[in-house]
Amino acid sequence: MAESEIHYRRSRYAIISPHRYFKGSGVYRLVYLTTKPRLLALSAAAADAIEKDDCSALSAGELSYLVKIGMLIDDEKRDCEYVSGLLAEQSQMSASRTFVLMPTSLCNMECSYCGQRHCPLAYSQRVAGQAKDAVVASLGNDEVQAVDVRWYGGEPLMAYHRILELSSTFVDVARKTRTAYQSSMTTNGSLMTFERLRTLYESAMLRKICVTIDGYGKFHNKSRKMRSGRPTYQLIVNWLMEAVEHIDKIPEILIIVRINITVNNASSIMRLLHDLYHHGLSDKHILLQLIPVYNWGHDNSDLQLDSRSLNECMEDWLREAVRLGLHINMLPTAIKQPVCIATNRFATVIDSKGQLYSCSEHPLVSPYDTHEVLGYVDSQSEVFPRPLGKYDDWPTSVLSGKVPCSTCPFSRYAEVPVLNAGMREKNHVRYT
Ligand code: SF4
User: Which of 156, 247, 325, 368 is the most exposed, fewest CB within 10 Å of its CB?
Assistant: First the structure.
């Protein structure tokens, strides 16, 4: 059948902007295709036609191109098949292994919205040895091409020396076995210095770090409260500046600055953006993420901005950040593979007691810390594939329409922590 005779319709993963843009004599609309992901400026006439599922208005060239990239599809199933194939592939990535290592459960901050339960536990010599053996076993497995270690909290830098000690073995074995190895860290930034960052870059192959700033100056210091009372805003900005100044020493680093948005700090975000800009943090190695606070393990609804205000503010913040030349999360530019570690049996969390979990949000959030333990790092000869976890059927749940992700065009960029009652009820997702 000729292409022009087939009845095509818009993929559910093609999102058409309601706005019109003018350039010269042309009128355009933006279309974002989440399956690629790709942003296209189509003539308003073509976008209108796609929106109405009336492809007769498209030229043969336009039709052919839009079919080729998957923006137009010819039957209901194709969207599902496309995504199911990818989801299945993602959950079977046995050549890549991911370890989320929690060398300590303790955190030196006490943020009001934190859903984690912090206890003064750290890897004992025995648990550290077992976690080390598990990572080394993956590095030594001929089928494994890449190992990714994520240092996660509490506050991982409270176990800085343990991280260096373990990393020295990991990097050494990775070099000998020619396995791709890198690490990342989620930190509150209070114990970081440029020297530590550089040491972790060189000795622990740290290539991505995520640090949180909750608004400008005193807004951050009030929200990200240190147990000791020490303010940390300027301290964090200082090591970020130093990192940018000496970026040639850590050229492959990506520093994600996460900005948690609450009703209390929303008024300071514009000032924060300007302050980061004035401190030279528009470098391409720094990526800002504006993240509204949700119910992370407990009820944070008092802190949440209503969605109308959030949308209005978000537009202003994004526009200003772009105007200043700051790098900021706008639309996803790459597909997450796998979508979330909790759906991947070749990824596991090893908490400070040596317990295995599928989801990094479980170990410190009650009651998941006790209900969702999948085993112990010392109780099995092989860590992978890890024991079945709560979310391993997520790809099939998406396909069978059992979860809201089934109809969400962004489901392939989402994480499924389902870490709190409110979110769990909806079985909803956290976008990253
Ligand atoms: S820094 Fe992170 S882990 Fe520590 S209290 Fe704050 S939100 Fe919780």
Answer: 325
Give the residues across from 99 on adjacent strands: 149, 348
User: pTM for this one?
Assistant: 0.88
Query: Angle between the 160-177 and 194-203 helix axes, to the nearest 10 degrees?
Result: 30
The Å distance, Cα 426 to ligand 1 centre, comes to: 25
Verify whether ligand 1 is closer than 6 Å to residue 328 (CB atom).
Answer: no
Atom from ligand 1 closest to the CA of residue 224:
6
341 CA to middle of ligand 1, Å?
21
Task: Provide the residue-wise pLDDT of the chain in tens; the chain has 432 residues.
Answer: 666 677 888 988 899 999 999 999 999 999 999 888 889 999 999 999 999 988 888 999 999 999 999 899 887 666 666 666 666 666 567 799 999 999 999 999 988 788 787 788 899 999 999 999 999 999 999 999 999 999 998 899 999 999 999 999 999 999 999 999 999 999 999 999 999 999 999 999 999 999 999 999 999 999 998 999 999 999 999 999 999 999 999 999 999 999 999 999 999 999 999 999 999 999 999 999 999 988 776 788 889 999 999 999 999 999 999 999 999 988 888 877 777 899 889 999 999 999 999 999 899 888 889 999 999 998 656 688 899 998 888 877 877 778 877 777 776 655 443 333 333 333 333 322
- 111 CA → ligand 1 middle, Å: 6
For atom 6 of ligand 1, the residue with the nearest CA is 111
Structural domains in the chain plus CATH codes? 3-74 (no CATH), 77-432 (3.20.20.70)
Element (H, E) at 91: helix 76-91
State whether the beta carbon of 107 lies less than 6 angstroms from ligand 1.
yes
Element (H, E) at 206: strand 206-212
Which residue's CA is the closest to the ligand 1 atom numbered 5? 110
